[in-house]
């Protein structure tokens, strides 16, 4: 006698998706529904009626998958998601992928097995091939755009333009960029924004760009490498605040002063940026509003159904602090 796993294997979907079809619980794409029903028919699968009646309810649970909970930006995001979820009668399961594709997929499968009603996913990169077997309602947050899923993000390109122009306005003559990982979509957009401002400058050189993961350790190494290569660099745009904090530490270690010798600006607007010395200029993302919007959008898809994929891009804000003051200037 066929069981639910046999049906899932034949249809090429997860067990949780078959369960959703059988229980008529939650959104399932038409093409997936047809594949599952065909497999059920061919295997003559008959679900237990009692189990169906017990499972034909929502769990009021949302999954949140983040790439790196050690980056202060993401706990701030998680706080917003949890608060809005709780306000709407949902609980949240927090998962950390460490930026690994395998971990992301394991978390998605676990959330399906736990009958989560939907997922908010912040991932380094997205492909439809990876997500096509998942029929849980899903919203992409901060790090991705996919035509088949709703997405919430900030205007990373515009923020990078803003940061680079700010350094120029503050008197910087040669600006380097410590970019994030090449596979992270936010880092790619921030790099493009920087390049759009400086590429026609007579001082611009591709060697002024160096990639690092979003952590202080790699940022320290990258900063020292840049300044050893070219001591005339007097401004650094860091792809996120953790990289910028690493820049400050590296600059201090070689005896330079910020902003007297070199100016530094980050991106994200994490709470640490106004606690360090010197206080760090940054491009602030509206982190709470982004988490709030993603959660409300997901809950609406769960309870009402998704009519079409939506894309919302939030504006960012320049926060000018001590690290980009003009030489000899005191920022009030």
From TrEMBL:
InterPro entries: HTH_LacI (IPR000843), LacI/GalR-like_sensor (IPR046335), Lambda_DNA-bd_dom_sf (IPR010982), Peripla_BP_I (IPR028082)
All residue ranges annotated as the HTH lacI-type domain in the record: 2-56
CDD domains associated with the record: HTH_LacI, PBP1_LacI_sugar_binding-like
Keyword tags: DNA-binding, Repressor, Transcription, Transcription regulation
SUPFAM superfamilies, per database record: lambda repressor-like DNA-binding domains, Periplasmic binding protein-like I
Keyword Ribonucleoprotein: no
Domain of life per record: Bacteria
GO molecular function per UniProt: DNA-binding transcription factor activity; transcription cis-regulatory region binding
One Pfam match: LacI
PANTHER family cross-referenced by the UniProt entry: LACI-RELATED TRANSCRIPTIONAL REPRESSOR, RIBOSE OPERON REPRESSOR
Name the record gives this protein: Transcriptional regulator
Originating species: Virgibacillus indicus
Native organism taxonomy: Bacteria, Bacillati, Bacillota, Bacilli, Bacillales
């Amino acid at each position: 006698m066929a069981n639910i796993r046999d049906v899932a294997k034949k249809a090429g979907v997860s067990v949780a998706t078959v369960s959703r079809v059988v229980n008529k619980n939650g959104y399932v794409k038409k093409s997936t529904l047809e594949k599952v029903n065909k497999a059920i028919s061919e295997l003559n699968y008959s679900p237990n009626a009692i189990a169906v009646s017990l499972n034909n309810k929502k769990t009021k649970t949302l999954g949140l998958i983040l790439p790196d909970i050690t980056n202060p930006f993401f706990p701030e995001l998680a706080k917003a998601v949890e608060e809005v979820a709780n306000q709407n009668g949902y609980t949240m399961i927090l998962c950390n992928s460490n930026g690994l594709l395998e971990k992301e997929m394991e978390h998605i499968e676990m959330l399906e097995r736990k009958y989560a009603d939907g997922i908010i996913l912040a991932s380094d990169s997205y492909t439809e091939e990876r997500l096509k077997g998942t029929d849980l309602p899903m919203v992409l947050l901060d790090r991705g755009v996919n035509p088949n899923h709703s997405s919430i993000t900030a205007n990373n390109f515009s923020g990078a333009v803003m940061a680079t122009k700010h350094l120029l306005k503050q008197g910087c003559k040669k600006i380097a960029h410590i970019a994030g990982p090449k596979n992270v979509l936010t880092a790619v957009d921030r790099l493009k924004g920087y390049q759009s401002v400086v590429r026609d400058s007579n001082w611009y050189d591709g060697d002024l760009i160096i990639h690092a993961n979003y952590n202080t350790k790699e940022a320290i190494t990258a900063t020292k490498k840049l300044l050893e290569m070219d001591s005339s660099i007097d401004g650094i745009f860091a792809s996120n605040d953790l990289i910028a904090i690493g820049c400050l530490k590296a600059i201090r270690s070689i005896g330079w002063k910020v902003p007297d010798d070199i100016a530094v600006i980050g991106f994200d607007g994490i709470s640490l940026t106004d606690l360090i010395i010197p206080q760090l200029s940054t491009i602030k993302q509206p982190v709470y509003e982004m988490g709030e919007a993603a959660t409300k959008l997901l809950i609406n898809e769960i309870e009402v159904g998704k009519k079409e994929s939506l894309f919302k891009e939030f504006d960012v804000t320049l926060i000018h602090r001590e690290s980009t003051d003009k030489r000899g200037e005191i920022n009030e």
